[in-house]
Amino acid sequence: MAADAALARLVDQVCSARAQRSVLDIRGGGTKAFYGEAAQGEPLDVRPLAGISSYEPTELVVTVRAGTSLAELEAALADQGQCLPFEPPHFGAAGGGAGGTVGGMVAAGLAGPARAAVGGVRDYLLGATLLDGRGQVLSFGGQVMKNVAGYDVSRVLAGSMGILGVICEVSLKVLPRPVATATLRFELDAGAAIRRVNEWSGRPLPISASAWWDGLLVLRLAGAAAAVAAAQRELGGEPVPPELAAGFWAGLRDHRDEYFVAAQAAVEQGASLWRLSLPQVAPPLVLPGSTAAAGNDPHEGPAAGAPAEPMLIEWGGAQRWLCSRLPAAQVRAAAQAAGGHAVLFRAQDKGAGVFAPLPEPLLRIQRELKAAFDPDRIFNPGRLYPQL
Amino acid sequence: MNAPAAQPAPGEAAARAGRQAEVVAALAPLLPAHALLWQPEDTTPYECDGLTAYRERPLAVALPETEAQVAALQKACRALRVPVVARGAGTGLSGGALPHALGVTLSLAKFNRIVRIDAYSRTAVVQCGVRNLAISEAAAPLGLYYAPDPSSQIACTIGGNVAENSGGVHCLKYGLTLHNVLRVRGFSVEGEPVVFGSDALDVPGLDLLPLVVGSEGMLAVITEVTVRLVPKPQLARCVMASFDDVRQAGDAVAAVIAAGIIPAGLEMMDKPMTAAVEDFVRAGYDLDAAAILLCESDGTPDEVAEEIGRMTEVLGRCGATRLEVSRDEAQRLKFWSGRKNAFPASGRISPDYLCMDSTIPRKRLADILLAIQQMEQQYGLRCVNVFHAGDGNLHPLILYDANDPDQLARCERFGADILETSVRFGGTVTGEHGVGVEKLNSMCVQFSPEERALMLAVKRAFDPLELLNPGKVIPTLHRCAEYGKMHVKKGLLPFPELERF
User: How far, CA to CA in Å, does B425 sit from each of A74, B359, B366, B393, B432?
Assistant: First the structure.
């Protein structure tokens, strides 16, 4: 079988890398190659290990090989009226290509607009088969919703950036697509938008996503038709036509939205795109403006009296995007002071480190975990942290 | 199966007494006098948890009152290389809080303060010893509640729920403990403060929260938990459907899901179970049905009306012989009363019963029921069945008399057969009761030696000296001979007044 042969080849590649003391750069579609610290080592292409191993819609579980394209998986689910509720982003591949893979989705651990309402990649991961640094193929978790047999190793793979091993196959919980959705717009400032979304979220309303930018809050409702209709009557706001709304949420998810297009242009001119992960209710962060426009000397720091840095706010306030030339330390400190952390999501110069530094003893534990899974540091060394 | 803890040999006893004196001397300065117990009459109440078949007396029981005391105790125990077994309310069903004979039991019962409940952020910060139900009670005036509802929720603590990743009847729609906990705070084995998770929705680096949740106290000692609260549904209604064939009932479960419905609860009882509970609660169950399904919808009145309509349509189409929708809250609770009293009802019809806790893919529900019916013939014992059908989580209760050694032996083989069959059907040996000591043997079946070795390495990453609840969850090689099971002797299940399901 093709999958068995593909797995056998991966095992061989890992064993020979181990024997030669070389390093592997685990790759799927390459759509998230920009993310994290710089990749190093020989590419290990997981895409030959592809295909849906089992999918029974009435079990609400799909088991899929890591090299399968995310688009293919989502199409198979859509055929049965189901979906990955956390809306994983589809980023564009450099030079075209078939797009991201399921393995990359899990390793990067990124989720789209529905994250705050429904949970993230980790929450839908029921089991995984992993190729570890000794060349062993190991399975953890399973294909059932409730399973407390042993440590929940599979869920740790979500967001692990491939440092623990090669994700070979995963079982994911899937859900029916919502029967009805509606998108509403409200004119509100950032503080009021965060307040409103959080207040609404404390009521039994089917809120599934929110985004705020430049004085406008966009809110998505999803659920039973009756619940969506009732919520729409209750909340008011200006309805957004469905086609326009679908395009907006997909653009936001995949970073094709005009905000991200502009941010990408600014990054090419030397700005940094930061992802701030904060408690949902944190008030708007006031960072003195550095003006993301091209031509500013990043070492000069913010101009006195400049307006506050604008942010795109998602997840009811839990995810905020900042395109800025502010010094990394200042952004990190502000995120930390607000109870969260900042990720240097896109930048030409990632010298300041992509992920916020870990406190002891978490760094010690993570170093030990890396050693347990990958004692010879074959897999994606340094991709998450230089020490891991 | 409720033998007292084994008595050590005389030489061993002297060594143990010496070790005990050493440990007590080291810990006594760290705690008020009343917070350290070591006399047998004081430590006996701690010798088991909800799994009474296994008992062990610890060297000492420490009842710290402050986090500083927890840190100091951890440091002292580590210096002496003494195992530490954290304990909440002791309601666990798998022996996760069974003391270590040469260890200290760390009772966290005094950490029972609700630190903060915040409607705006829909979170509650609570100490680990706060009872599960107390969180929902405190949040109720705000229109919020904590969703996971293990059957022992009136007594079990949030710290224990975190240790076991506890479920309940609403998991399919609302998730397990992991999905409802944002952040836990506590102490590493070295006594250093640690935080896993965050008030934000993700953390930098590896996400260790899913390892810690469900780790049965083997990776860190948790003292404070931040949970997510969710809006209380305005309304819940329940459909009770009878089927005259178990396969039809199993197919109906799949059909409900296939229709795109995620019920708030979806439970099943077979005919013998229905007879046992009807005799106990008199809820008016259909005694002619081969299986009864309880299917619940919650949400806004409009939403519930729409969903109940779809549910009854699907269940009717699947051949339900009787369909009844709860008219009001009183009737809804009545529908549930039998399901929630399945354990005590079984206790009334048999001297003893053995409770299993495996999970299978939903589509195999009818297959496993029919297989269990075959096994009843094969082993000459009766078995009554309740399922969290929506999750495929089974609780077959094998009825037997422990005073008859032959029945006990047949019962154990029967239980082993059910677990084996569950694994063969693509399931798992424990859905929600945890491994503890009870299912150590079953772990051998589900995981390869390499997988178990990696789990042990995960433990060592957190706890290099293996001092936190050692000997639980991950079996040693020589244990891998037979499956584990739970024995309950009539009347000796702790907290018999609690609903068990």
Answer: 27, 9, 12, 13, 18
Q: How confident is the model over B185-230, as pLDDT tens digits? A: 999 999 999 999 999 999 999 999 999 999 999 999 999 999 999 9
Torsion, CA A75, CA B263, CA A158, CA A55, rounded to 10 = -40
**Count of alpha carbons within 13 angstroms of residue A191, beta-carbon side:** 3
| Torsion angle defined by CA atoms of residues B302, B307, B312 and B313, in that order, rounded to the nearest 10 degrees | 100
Is A147 in Cβ contact with B205 (below 8 Å)?
no
pLDDT of residue B493: 38
Torsion of CA A371, A374, A375, A378, to 10 degrees: -130
**DSSP code string of B119-173:** TTTTEEEEETTSBHHHHHHHHGGGTEE-----TTTTT-BHHHHHHHT---TTHHH
Q: Tell whether B250 is within 8 A of chain A (Cβ).
A: no
* Residue ranges of chain B with per-residue pLDDT less than 70: 1-8, 478-501
| Inter-chain touch A227–B442, beta carbons under 8 Å | no
Distance from CA of A337 to the nearest CA of B (A): 12
pLDDT at B480: 66
Q: How many residues does chain B have?
A: 501
The whole-model pTM stands at 0.92
Q: Which pLDDT score, from 0 to 100, does residue B490 have? A: 34
- Find residues 272-331 of chain B whose CB sits inside 8 Å of chain A: 299-300, 302-303, 305-307
User: Is B120 in CB contact (< 8 Å) with chain A?
Assistant: yes
* Chain A to chain B Cβ contacts (< 8 Å): 255
| Cβ-contact A208, A232 below 8 angstroms | no
> Which among B210, B428, B451 has CB closest to A144?
B428
Helix (H, G, I), strand (E, B) or coil at A155: helix
Measure CB to CB from residue B207 to each of A122, A144, A363 and give the nearest one: A122
Note whether A142 contacts B211, CB cutoff 8 Å.
Answer: no
- Give one DSSP letter per residue of B100-127, joined into a string: PTTSEEEE-TT---EEEEETTTTEEEEE
User: Residue A60 is nearest to which of B203, B257, B388, comparing CB atoms?
Assistant: B257
Residue with tokens 């309304």: B235
> Residue B349: CB partners within 8 Å, gap ≥ 6?
B276, B279, B384, B399
Tell me how far apart the alpha carbons of residues A56 and A166 are, in angstroms, rounded to a whole number.
25
User: What is the spatial distance between Cα B394 and Cα B294, in angstroms, rounded to a whole number?
Assistant: 15
Q: Name the residue of chain B whose CA is nearest to A200's CA.
A: B120
Residues in chain A where the model's pLDDT stays below 70: 1, 93-97, 289-308
CA A38 vs. chain centroid, Å, equals 18
Cis peptide before B231 (omega within 30 of 0): no
Check B446 against A156: CB less than 8 A apart: no
**Nearest CA among B468, B477, B479, B500 for reference residue B215:** B468
ipTM rounded to 2 decimals? 0.95
φ, ψ dihedrals at B355, nearest 5° = -100, 125
Asked if B394 reaches chain A (Cβ–Cβ under 8 Å), the answer is: no
Residue of A nearest to B206 (CA): A160
Q: Which pLDDT does position B6 carry in this prediction?
A: 57
What is the Cα–Cα distance from A159 to A90, expressed in whole angstroms? Answer: 16
Q: What is the pLDDT of residue B35?
A: 97
In Å, how far is B195's CA from the nearest CA of chain A?
A: 8
Is the Cβ–Cβ distance between B85 and B103 less than 8 Å?
A: yes
Q: What is the C-alpha to C-alpha distance for residues A148 and B171, in angstroms, rounded to an integer?
A: 13
